[in-house]
């Protein structure tokens, strides 16, 4: 069954009121502060992979494909791939953290300006939130569902960005990538919910716009909600993301959260 911007992709897997906790990705799912990160990462990768000359079409396509496939993983893992390919193609050997630091420096030029505008009150949080996201988080919390935020973005940055957007109060725990460590925060949150909270897979919902969190959710038996968000308009369905999330095996898919009533009915098993 299809509702406006909401689809049930796996009718054999419907929660039916069993969900007690939900794990959300942040960037591209709730927040659009980092919208356009691909436009920073791609050119930077090509700059190091093809120094001093324009990259050929095959290399540009390789980078584009890798970024698309790796969306959602911790940034340093993407930089590990870059470091290995740079060494293969140019003979230059650098620590992946060199690339991670340079990418972060470039990306944060625009992100920090947005955060300052929010903190100073010259910008509205709604300008950088996926439509309906805070109301949806509130609706889940009102139902007694514990909410967890897990991100591949640096922990300190996720905390600050969740705060300036007004999302932080909805989450029981916020976990980003640990400083100078390569570890998957999303996997860590899910493991903690199983080991510390004694949740079973059928009691968990995992929501995000990347195949990584959807894949992790499927592995642990959680229900998965793909967020095929259009980060520029903050509403509606992004067809590229939709195709990625369908391929990843999401149980249901939404473009934004203005259709919260339909998503909640799905959670209740009423659709």
Structure notes:
It contains ten helices and eight strands. With 271 residues, the protein is an alpha/beta fold. The protein folds into two domains: 2-32 and 129-267, HAD superfamily/HAD-like (Rossmann fold, 3-Layer(aba) Sandwich), CATH 3.40.50; 37-120, no CATH class. An eight-stranded mixed beta sheet has the order 1-2-8-7-6-3-4-5, sandwiched between helices. Helix 1 (37-49) packs across helix 2 and helix 8 runs parallel beside helix 9 (239-248). The longest helix is centred in the middle third of the chain and has 25 residues, at 96-120. The termini are close together.
Which key features would you list for this structure?
271 residues, alpha/beta, Rossmann fold, eight-stranded mixed sheet, 10 helices, 8 strands, 13% strand
């Amino acid at each position: 069954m299809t509702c406006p911007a909401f689809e049930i992709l796996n009718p054999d897997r419907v929660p039916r009121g069993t969900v007690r906790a939900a794990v959300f990705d942040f960037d591209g799912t709730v927040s659009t502060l980092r919208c356009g990160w691909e436009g920073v990462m791609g050119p930077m990768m090509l700059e190091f992979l093809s120094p001093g000359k324009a990259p050929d079409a095959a290399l540009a396509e390789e980078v584009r494909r890798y970024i698309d496939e790796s969306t959602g993983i911790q940034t340093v893992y993407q930089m590990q791939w870059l470091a290995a390919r740079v060494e293969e193609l140019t003979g230059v050997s650098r620590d992946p953290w060199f690339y991670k630091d340079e990418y972060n420096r470039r990306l944060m030029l625009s992100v920090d300006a947005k955060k300052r505008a929010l903190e100073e009150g010259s910008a509205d949080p709604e300008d950088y939130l996926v439509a309906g996201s805070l109301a949806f988080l509130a609706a889940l919390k009102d139902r007694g569902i514990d909410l967890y935020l897990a991100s591949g973005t640096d922990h300190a940055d996720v905390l600050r960005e969740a705060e300036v957007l007004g999302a932080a109060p909805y989450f029981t725990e916020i976990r980003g990538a640990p400083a100078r460590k390569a570890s998957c925060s999303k996997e860590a949150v899910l493991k903690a919910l199983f080991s510390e909270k004694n949740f079973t897979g059928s009691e968990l919902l995992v929501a995000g716009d990347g195949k990584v969190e959807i894949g992790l959710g499927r592995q642990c038996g959680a229900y998965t909600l793909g967020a095929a968000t259009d980060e520029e308009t903050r509403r509606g369905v992004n067809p590229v993301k939709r195709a990625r999330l369908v391929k990843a095996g999401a149980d249901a898919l939404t473009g934004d959260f203005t259709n919260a009533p339909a998503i909640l009915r799905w959670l209740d098993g009423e659709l």
